[in-house]
């Protein structure tokens, strides 16, 4: 899966979680500033793990604290 596809999935999922339009989610804003707390971060990590069909550490959103950085890390065979 490409970084662009992962980024789009994350934007869609986070927009849904925060009840905002996807266009309102800035991929360069840290997850914490978007309103993603530790519980939501763990849930997102688990959903992302299932979506990508590979094991991910539960701390992945803290290790890569923006949508852009996380997508880049995971995309195109990275991570």
How would you characterize the overall build of this protein?
The protein has 79 residues and is mostly helical. It has a single domain (3-77), classed as Non-ribosomal Peptide Synthetase Peptidyl Carrier Protein, Chain A (Orthogonal Bundle). Helices cover 59% and strands 0% of the residues. The longest helix is centred in the first third of the chain and has 16 residues, at 3-18. The radius of gyration is 11 Å and the shape is globular. The model has no long low-confidence stretch (mean pLDDT 93).
Give keywords:
79 residues, mainly alpha, Non-ribosomal Peptide Synthetase Peptidyl Carrier Protein, Chain A, 5 helices, globular
Unreliable residue stretches: none
Q: Please tell me the CATH architecture by its name.
A: Orthogonal Bundle
Can you summarize the main beta sheet? none
Q: What's the gyration radius in Å?
A: 11 Å
What's the CATH first level?
Mainly Alpha
The amount of beta strand, in percent, is under 5%
Which superfamily, in CATH terms, is the homologous superfamily? ACP-like
**Domains counted in the coordinates: how many?**
1
* Net shape: globular
Question: What is the H-and-E element order?
Answer: HHHHH
Individual helix count = 5
Q: What is the fold's blueprint, element by element?
A:
Blueprint: H1 3-18, H2 31-34, H3 38-52, H4 60-63, H5 67-74
Helix pairs in contact: 1-5
In short:
This protein is an all-alpha fold. It has 5 helices and no strands. It is globular and about 30 Å long.
